[in-house]
Amino acid sequence: MLGIVLGLFAALMQSVSYLCSRHVTHRFNAGSVRLLVLSHLWMGAISSIAAVLYWPDGMPPLGQYIWPLAGTMFFYLLGQIGLFMALKYTEASRISPLLALKVVILALIGTIFLSLNLNLWQWVAVCMALGGAALLNWSGGSLPFKAILWLLFTCLNYSLSDLNILVMIEHMQPLPAMKAALIGNFCSYALGGACMLPLLYFHRKAPKEQWIGAFPFAASWFVAMLFLFTCFAQIGVVYGNIIQSTRGIMSILIGAMLASRGAVHLEAVVARSVFARRLFAALLTLAAIVIYQGMKP
Fold first, then answer.
1. Domain tally, the chain
2. How confident is the model over 156-180, as pLDDT tens digits?
3. Rg for the chain (alpha carbons), in Å?
4. Are 93 and 255 in contact (CB under 8 A)?
5. Structural domain harbouring 143
6. Is the separation of the CB atoms in 139 and 274 below 8 Å?
7. Whole-model pTM?
8. Residue 8: CA atoms inside 13 Å, Cβ hemisphere, count?
9. CA 203 – CA 147 distance, rounded (Å)
10. Which of 248, 293, 294 is nearest to 107 (CA)?
11. Rounded distance, CA 121 to CA 125, Å?
12. CA dihedral (149, 151, 20, 250) positive or negative
């Protein structure tokens, strides 16, 4: 039960972070690369302090988990670039449900490289997930082609990052799984902040308003990742992604509420029929990945 709750909070905070990223790129005229740099410098600073304060006794040597740690952050940063680029071309409420395709990608990776055998119902679930993605693409107009490409790029790299998170937690034994998840999160984002330091030279003239504007995204994303890492430690990466898929429904509901209140720079106002189709598509994708997990042999 704890893992499910953690996954739901991760989904909620991710939905909030998507809106924060769209807000800062529009209001403060900050490009995707600048938001990536500034927000991860914020998270790197917070993570470094947290790691020093939380560093546990009996921490295994760095060589035991360095490669999955590096893989976690490398693929995550690539996915984050893809996400920011996708959000330049469409609303968060359309991108967020489609991130559930990560489960499909994880299934394909498992089938091809990890000797994972899917039964008939699991392949039906894969087709349902693809059907939900197609329905979202046709809700309120087709997604721009560039948004689709960046979305697929994002899902692939997020999936590879998730797999590395699980390996990193395992390689941090004998630490308990929850403690390993927390320190793994701190180490990952401290590393991410260090990776952004060379890029700070090109963004050293970023105005104060952009630094301030990047903080809500950094804070909401960092909290989401704390919940996500600990969720994976509790229930695993596949089921954790199933729980995460609820962010699609959350993003649609939050987006509709903001649009109705006039925040059209965050979400465009859509007809009720379009909203209903988007919500149905998100529910179809959610049902698909629940079937995939529930029909394991």
1. 1
2. 999 999 889 988 999 998 899 999 9
3. 19
4. yes
5. 2-294
6. yes
7. 0.80
8. 5
9. 26
10. 293
11. 6
12. positive
